[in-house]
Amino acid sequence: MKRFFNWLKALFNRTMDKVEDPEIMLDQARRDMQAALIGNREKAVQAITQKNRLQGMLEEATKKSTALEANAVAALKQGNRELAQQFMREKMTNDAVITQLTESYNKAAAVVESVKVAIKRQEEEVRKKTAEALALKAQWKQAQIQNSITKALDGLTFENQFESFGAASERIKMMQSEADARQEMHSDSIEGKLLQMQDKAMDYEAESELQKLEERLGMRAAPVAEEATESVTVSATNGQAPAADPTVEQKLQSEADKQLEELEKRLQGGS
User: Fold this and answer.
1) How far apart are CA 220 and CA 205, in angstroms?
2) In angstroms, rounded to a whole number, what is the distance separating the alpha carbons of residues 153 and 144?
3) How many domains does the chain have?
4) Do 29 and 116 fall within a single domain?
5) Where a domain ends, among 150, 167, 182?
6) Which phi-psi region, left, alpha or beta, contains residue 239 (left: φ > 0; alpha: ψ -120 to 50)?
7) Non-local CB neighbours of 130 within 8 Å, separated by 6+ positions
């Protein structure tokens, strides 16, 4: 039973919401104005009809008075004064009716003119209110759209996404710092030094090959033979054979020997 009453209550509230809908209210107001205008037009038609009837009666009475006067004139010309007198009495009675009809017609005409003015003003007011109703309905639609947008924006959340973004950024910074530290440790180790030496040796070899390529292309002058001869002569006068340039492998071996000697010294010192 409670569920039934709740259903009736919800149905009633929904019906009331529809009844209080501005669009429905504006449409109903416009229909009421149109109905009132149609009713007033009908009343104006009736007033104009009565005015036209009075106008017709007045014209008939005026014609009758004219005819009675003509009959009286004709009777006088025939010497029948008594008949002429009867015609004039009847004309006087008809003239009194004309006076009443004229007064009624003037009043009716004034009322009809005022009704026409009122109808015209009412038509203008209906057109004005109709335009206002259309503008209000447009404003109502716009307000509904803005309200929907506001509700949609109220449901948006960015906190979690921003927190995740910040955590990811901090994680990347930590990993970058760790990578820099490992790179620094690696560069100070024996392996790092060996790699640096190998890089330098490769640079020397690349420079030597580049010089040879430039000589072949004519972009670099070849070494003078006299300088080579003088160097050989000087070495010969010293009684010693010219020393050959150490190779990359010899340099690496020499550096390795030095590192090994330092390691043996640290071990002996520790013992």
Assistant:
1) 17
2) 14
3) 2
4) yes
5) 150
6) left
7) 30, 33
Asked if residue 231 belongs to a domain, the reply is no
Q: What mean pLDDT comes out for the span 209-222?
A: 77
Give per-residue pLDDT as tens, 49-82: 999 999 999 999 999 999 999 999 998 898 888 9
Range of the domain at 103: 2-150
pTM of the model: 0.43
Q: How confident is the model at residue 234 (pLDDT cuts 50, 70, 90)?
A: very low
CA-to-CA dists, residue 142 to 147, 149, 151, angstroms: 9, 11, 14
Banded model confidence at residue 254, pLDDT cuts 50, 70, 90: confident
In a domain, 117, yes or no: yes
